[in-house]
Every structure is written in C-alpha cells, then in structure tokens.
Amino acid sequence: MDWKTSVKSNGIMEWPYPVRYHDEIELETDVLVLGGGIAGCFAAIAAAKAGSRVIVLEKGAALRSGSGGTGCDHWINTPHPDSSITAEEILDWEVKFSGGYCNGISRYIAARESYETLLELEAMGGKIRDTSDEFEGAAFRDEKSKFLFAYDYENRIHFRVWGSTFKPALYKACRELKVNIKDRLMVTALLTANGMAGERVIGAMALHTRTGAFYIIKAGAVINCLSRHQRNWAFSTELRGISSFRPPQIVGDGHAMAWRAGAEFTMMEKSVLTSFGSGNVLPPYSHGNCLNTWFPCSMIDAKGSEIPYQNRDNMIIPDPADRTRPAPGQKFLGERTTDYEYKRPELIGNLKEKIEQGEYTLPLYADLPGMSEMDRKAIWGLMVGEEGKTGIPVRDLYQIAGFDPEMDLLQSYMFLGSDPMRGSVRPQERTGGEIGDAGGLFVDWELKTNLEGFYAAGDALFAGNYFYHAATTGRYAGKNAARFAAKVNKFSPNREQIKKEKTRIYLPLGKKGRMEWKELNMAMCRIMQDYCSEYKNEELLNIGLAWFDDIEKNELSHVSVDNPHQLVRTLEVFNVLTCNRMILQASLARKASSKYLHFHRLDYPELDPEQWRKWIVLKNLDGTIEQSAKPLNFWQSLVDIYESHRS
Length: 647
Fold this sequence. Notes:
CATH class of one domain: Mainly Alpha
Low-confidence stretches: none
Helix content: 25-40%
Number of strands: 22
Structural class: alpha+beta
Distance between the termini: 55 Å
Radius of gyration: 24 Å
Oligomer: single chain
Largest sheet: 7 strands, mixed
Number of helices: 16
C-alpha cells in the first residue's frame, strides 16, 4: 500500500516513537566523533586503536550513512610501492588545477597515507582487488597484486575498487573495537569551556531524531567529521530525487555549529554554476557519457559516427588504448584537471561547434558494445554500480528493464540540457558544497582547528573532497585527537550554555505557524539566488544579510513543527541560514574577483590580483566577525613538517 492510499484509508499515522522533549541524557567519553560517515568511522577506529574511549554521533544510521555510504568506484591519488609517482607530484597537480586554492595539508596527508589506509580498509573486509579474477588479462589490471586501475593505465595511481563493501566493513570494525555508535542523533551545538565562543571544545549537544530527547556529551577531544554546506541556492525535495550528488540531508550542520563556537573558516565565498541538485537534471552517471566514472567510454552520434578523443596537445587519439595513457612527454594523468601538465584525454574540444554545423547529429550515445569486453565490464559492471547511488537505481534497474551493455547503446544527454556534467545552467543555479572542493574549517598540521581540542576531517575541512581524502584525514585526525584527550582534564559543561541551546532547538515546538521547513528553505534559496548569485557587489551582499536578519527575527518563530522529524528538518534549515550568512560574510571580505573560486564582484572586477591571492579566514565571536589572511601555500615545507607530525 502506498502512502497516499494509506492516508486516505487510515488517516495520518501518529508518531510511532515515545516523545521525550527536554529530557536530558548525559554521556562521557575520551574522543567524541561527530558524524558516522567515511571520515567519522576512520577517526573512531584510529582513536579506539590508540586506546581512547570513543563515541560516534550519527544523524542517520552509520551502517550506510554519509556521502560515501553507498559506495565509491575509484580511490584516487595513491602512490604505492610499484608506482614512480610521489605524493609531492600528486599535490602539484591538485594545486595547479585549483590555481593554488587547495588544502595542501590535508591533500598531502592523504597522498602520503592513502595506500596504507586502503590496505587497512582491506584488512577490515573491504574489497579492493579482483580476487575473483573477473578482469584477468585486462590492461588496467596488475596480475601480481590483482589491483585494478582507472584513468591512467600506465602510472596506475587511481584504483578501481568495490566501494559498496567499505562502509559495512568500517561499521563492523567500529563495533569490534567497542566504539559506541549513537545513531539517530543530530548534533546541534558544541560545548565549550565556560560556555564561551572561542574557548576549548569540551563536548557537544545533540537531539534524538525520533524521540526528541536532549543529549549532553562530555569529551576530552572532539572531531568534526560532518559534511559540507548544501541547499543554499537550490532546494526541492519533490524534484531533486537522486539528482543530487551528496545526500540532501547534508546541509552543513557541522559548519554552522563550529561557526557559532568561534572556529575559523576559509573559502566559503566559493560557489560554482551547476545544475546538480536543481531538479533539472538526470541522476549522475545514469546516462551515457565519457566523464569520471564513464571514462574512457566511446561516444557516437545519432548516425553512428564516432566522436574522436584528443590529448592535451589537441592531437586526435585513433587507438582507444591510448586514451588511458599520458601524451608524449607527459608525466601522468590527473583524475580531473584542466591544467596542461596533467590533463586527461577528452572528446574533441570543438564538438559543440561541429554539432551546430551539422557534422555530428544529436543525440549522442555511449557505445559500450563497441568497446573491449574488459573496458565495457569495468565501466558498466564495476564503476557504474559502485559509484555512490548508481548500484540499484542505475545498473540494476536498467538491466531489469532490458538494457544489455553488450548490445545496446545508452543515450547521452550531453548538450540536451539535463546532463549534470555539461548541461546548460542558469546564473542562479549554483552550489557551494554539492560538488568539487568547498569551503570549510581552517586547520593546522594536526588537523586541529583554532579551538583547542577540536579537530576536523573529510568534508568538514576546507577544500576537502573524495572518498580517499575522507578516509585518510579521518584516520589521521583520530590519532591526534586521541593523543590530546589522553593528556587533558575534562571540563564540566556550562549549564547556562546548555539552557540556551535547549531554548533554541525546542523553540519551534507546537508552533502552528504560517510555513513549514521546506517553504523556509526555498525562501532562503531565493534570497541567495537574488543577492549572492553570479554577480555580487557590496550592496547586493548587504541586502542579502538584511533579508536573513529579517527572517531570523520575524519568520523562524512561525515555522510549524509537529514531531521530532519535523523538528530535525527545521533545525537543518536554521543551519542552512547560518551557512548562508557565512557565505555572504566571506563574499564581502574578498574584495577581488577570482577565476579559481568562481567568484565575480562587479565592484572589484579584476581577476585574481596578486595581493588577493590568499586565504581569507573568518571567525565569529558572539556576532563579531574577525578576519585574517594566510598565504596560499601557508603549509610551507611539506615533507619536513609532515614527518615531524607523523605518528
């Protein structure tokens, strides 16, 4: 029976869990991990192995939660004993691709520790090798180790993996190490020494998503492994479906609470044009293309003409095998980059013009049948299936519907408007955190924030991205947090801070107001579309802040909440509002435009002037915004500093 039929027959069901608003439950631990995703599980495992008592707070269910909960198809940027590529070279391509706006600390840690982290994951039960010999003899397989590689078959630094096995393996390892996983708890605020912003973090407060009970958790150290900000410019639960890249309940909870506690953030002014999450595109990787997961798929037009690939020098690549090898004189292929030194082969650059001139006819198709058996199986059977949300809704359902990759072409929506990778995008269709590197917490070489006892990993970090990065930084932060927790005394929480937070989160209860959380979120998106879109200036940004002042003063108290689920969704929207404020403040602080940050100020139009090639670091101390700056390469000597911090 579907929901509508059930409601017609039986009415709307009562809330099925006991409701315990305002009830307090107190817990204590050595290391508290916020978020049970990839970074969170690795942080918990590392801290537990170091001898700490560990609690993990997870808003969903840690068995499959987080951006990587359903899987990943590749584990990139991984130097290993059989590769000649170094961690320094890995960081070099990432820095050049981003124009310097890269987290050199976390990306270097990730490159140095990625291989050992991958092997540790295998020891927990994750599948990282072709143990069934399904791909025996393939050009991308190492016959000795049975590793499979993607993108660059010559240098072999990007692994193909069975990522759907990873999260259950991590969850099982947490349980074996006696990590106390608390599912269905939404973290709402950090506890700080004396209840003051800017002071040492001594725990957190949380709301049970089903009972509404209030949790107070004391800790020696806290690791923020919650994800990035989303739903700032585009939001629709009815239209988005699985067209979003990350789970839609990821909204920047960790960003918002850390901002309120006085933590430093950077790169929050960055946003990119994208149709991801807008409801106007198909789910990622659900149609034929040649990007990321689908690389290097052959593409043909409606009349069967193959679309040529070209290398970085715009030379046509006639042999499909050469699509996965560096061009003459090229060191290696980056996973994704427009930088000449590491640029991957791609379809001819003037394809759009040739389509307009009639040389190629739309629609285009992925020609899986025309590829070698091994490459076809790798793309459709492994990559499409292990990547994020593709396993059941794309690979399995398509084949149930009759799609046969050995015989059938799969239509592409490139140049048709609903391709999330290359679809047409309106100026107000933007995201800060849906895809790519995003703004986040500013950290040092221990992955510690400016707040004592408060660490960060994964997408909580500025310029964080990818599964391998979340895993390695979570593992690294877990070790450092455990060391800190072992040598400090725990503070008693400040009762006034607890009282204030309870008042804030329970404020919407019982309100029979004029809107629900969805309407509020959509209204805030409209403000961001109008006043912080493609074009920005001082006037627009300040009007945006004034709008959010008005919403906070006059509208938040009118949001209707009937049960703990609605309360959680409403608090998420409150956090979206906080993240919007952070974006606007960061946008006001950067008085220059930037190609690399996709940032355009009409009143400061010069692109990337030398004096503004720097990190703008902001923190909020009880409503006062403090601003500082750091050079882009503030991490200094990579090898020496890393070695001095490596455990």
